[in-house]
Amino acid sequence: MSFDPVRAVYLDALAVGMKARCNGLSQGDVDAMVTRAEEAMPSDDLMFRSITAFAVQFEECRFDPERLAEIGETLTNAVRRLSQPDPVDAGRADIYG
Questions:
Q1: Confidence of residue 1 (pLDDT cuts 50, 70, 90)
Q2: Which tens digit of pLDDT belongs to each residue from 42-56?
Q3: What are the distances in angstroms from CA 9 to CA 12, 45, 95?
Q4: Which DSSP string do the residues of 55-97 spell out, in sequence order?
Q5: Which pLDDT score, from 0 to 100, does residue 73 have?
């Protein structure tokens, strides 16, 4: 299996979100995640937007554990949602109406 930089960004974002939820996140973790996302993804990618939004919010609330847990949950939810594959038969009207 080869290295996939986009998948690495998703896993990094998941780890950062979990650290934020546990109040164990550092500025270096956020900077590394943003740098990796900038190198691997286009700026109009939804995951890239979620990561940059998290980084901006982190600057505003890095010393507020409750708010940090909230934005961490938002980031982990974005990773879960955006990593779900599209169903093969999503366009079938006989199944989905």
A1: low
A2: 999 999 999 999 999
A3: 5, 12, 34
A4: HHHHHHHTT-HHHHHHHHHHHHHHHHHHTSPPPTTTT-HHHH-
A5: 97
